[in-house]
């Protein structure tokens, strides 16, 4: 039953590529990979720093600083046997800091709310 289910899911996912614009993917691949590589590099650097300063395992620090959703990274921590409280609290802190910093960054960049809503 599991084999049949996996086969059907694979066929369904494969059918989504019918008519796929591979040229568009090639043109936009660099634009998609650049922010991912930048975010992952920063996560690795901060994980190395945290692992050395706080004496936590590198894998735990990397899961805590990796870009991703709170629920996904917490489940990853559970699956890998890492401390889910450490990982989850760091993701909550990141979301909180983004929420606090965003209005100041928008003001610093000079984004006008009225002109942004008209476009």
Written account of the structure:
The protein has helices spanning 2-15, 22-54, 58-65, 70-80, 84-109, 113-118. The chain is built from six helices and no strands. It is 82% helix and 0% strand. The chain has one domain (2-118). The chain is mostly helical. The N and C termini lie far apart (51 Å). Helix 2 (22-54) crosses helix 3 (58-65) and helix 4 (70-80) runs antiparallel to helix 5.
* Helix content percent band: over 70%
| Mean pLDDT across residues | 90
Distance between the termini: 51 Å
Instruction: Classify the beta-strand content into a percent band.
Output: under 5%
Pick out the low-confidence regions: none
- The helix-strand sequence is HHHHHH
How many domains, as an integer? 1
Largest sheet: none
Shape descriptor = extended
Return the structural class: mainly alpha
| DSSP summary: helix tally | 6
Number of strands: 0
Give Rg in angstroms: 20 Å
Question: How are the secondary structure elements laid out?
Answer:
Layout: H1 2-15, H2 22-54, H3 58-65, H4 70-80, H5 84-109, H6 113-118
Helix pairs in contact: 2-3, 3-5, 4-5
Features of the shown structure:
119 residues, mainly alpha, 82% helix, extended
Q: In a few lines, what is going on in this structure?
A:
By secondary structure, the protein is mainly α. The protein is built from 6 helices and no strands.
């Amino acid at each position: 039953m599991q084999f049949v289910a996996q086969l059907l899911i694979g066929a369904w996912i494969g059918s989504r590529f019918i008519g796929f614009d591979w040229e568009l993917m090639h043109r936009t691949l660099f634009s998609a990979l650049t922010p991912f590589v930048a975010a992952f590099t920063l996560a690795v650097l901060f994980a190395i720093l945290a692992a050395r300063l706080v004496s936590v395992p590198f894998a735990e620090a990397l899961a805590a600083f990796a870009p991703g959703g709170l629920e996904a990274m917490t489940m990853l921590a559970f699956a890998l046997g890492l401390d889910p409280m450490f990982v989850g609290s760091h993701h909550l802190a990141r979301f909180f800091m983004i929420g606090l910093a965003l209005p100041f960054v928008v003001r610093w960049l000079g984004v006008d709310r009225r002109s942004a809503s008209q476009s």
